[in-house]
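#lab-general

N.A. 3:47 PM
ok so I finally got the sequence cleaned up, no stray characters, all 85 residues accounted for. can someone with queue access submit it? mine expired

B.Y. 3:52 PM
send it over

N.A. 3:53 PM
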Amino acid sequence: MGILGVIGMIIVGFIVGLLARLFYPGAIHLGFWMTVLLGIGGSLVGGVLSSLLWRSPDGKFRPAGWIMSIIGSIILIWAYLNIGR
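B.Y. 4:20 PM
back already:
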C-alpha cells in the first residue's frame, strides 16, 4: 500500500467515523484522529460481521462496505461508552 492508499484510508475512515457519530444518538466528542480510527475500526468490525453473515466465496477476509462500516463504527461507539468506562 502506497502513500495514496494511506491517504485514501484516512479520508474514508474520517467520513465513516463522522457518519457514525451523526447516526449515534447523543453527542460524541472525538478529535480528528480518533474519528479516523473509529471509521477504520468500524470497517474492520463491519467486515467481520459481514463475513459471519455472508460467507465470501474464496474464504478471505474483506473490509466492509460503507453501510457495514458505519454499523461497525456505531457498535464501537456503543462499546466505548458502555463497556469501556
